[in-house]
Amino acid sequence: MAKDNSKNNNIILIGFMGSGKTSIGLKLSYKLQLAVEDTDKIIEARENTSISEIFAAKGEGYFRKLELEVLYEIKNSSGRKIYSLGGGTPVQLQNQSIICKCGTVIYLRAKPETIYDRLKGDTTRPLLQCDDPLAKIRDLISKRSPAYERCADLIVDVDELEQSEIVDAIVNYINGENCNEDTCN
Ligand code: S3P
């Protein structure tokens, strides 16, 4: 498959909270020998506080502005890194075209029940601190899925896969993408 030259060379991981972006990002980083960054961590370091605190003190809208700033920086960067984006980043329409230009976008798709099992008891996701987190997860995933799918170059259904299989699926895709008729076959 020919490379899309309108995209940066980064690998961008998207998906709902708890879909495995951070852990798969680390494993991919090791396998591909590329640096990995997490946009939530970038924001926390800049604001010198946690995502929960940012939501509580300044509101979700403020957090989304910070997310957009980081996205622009990734789009305007050179070099090649792996980035894990926050689960809500692809939702805003204006973010979607920027994400597509940031690099090859991999959507880690997980079922609501998988997310719920992984995140029950988690206190670091402000959007899930509610009476019925499973219902909230179902609602958010059904609203967000079209946005994730629009951004994705590759969708990996992660529910039944080992982490190593997810990493292999991504690496195979990336290698195929870098392959063209002159250099492959
Ligand atoms: C959010 C996901 C979180 C974090 C914030 C909002 C969301 O990131 O950005 O709590 O809107 O889904 P993770 O997907 O890394 O948990």
Describe the structure in your own words.
- The structure is a single chain.
- This protein has 185 residues and is an alpha/beta fold.
- Helix content is 52%, strand content 12%.
- The chain has a five-stranded parallel sheet, with helices on both faces.
- The chain is globular.
- Mean pLDDT is 94; it is low at 181-185.
- The protein binds shikimate-3-phosphate (S3P).
- The site of shikimate-3-phosphate has 10 residues, from loops.
Keywords:
single chain; 185 residues; five-stranded parallel β-sheet; 8 helices; disordered C terminus
Strand elements, count: 5
- Report on the biggest sheet: 5 strands, parallel
Order of helices and strands: EHEHHHEHEHHEH
Class by SSE composition: alpha/beta
Gyration radius, to the nearest Å? 16 Å
**What is the overall shape?**
globular
Query: Which ranges are low-confidence, i.e. pLDDT below 50, for 5 or more consecutive residues?
Result: 181-185
Q: Compounds present?
A: shikimate-3-phosphate
Number of H- or I-type helical stretches: 8
In whole angstroms, the N-to-C terminal distance is 12 Å
**What is the helix content?**
40-55%
Identify the strand order in the major beta sheet.
2-3-1-4-5
Mean pLDDT across all amino acids:
94
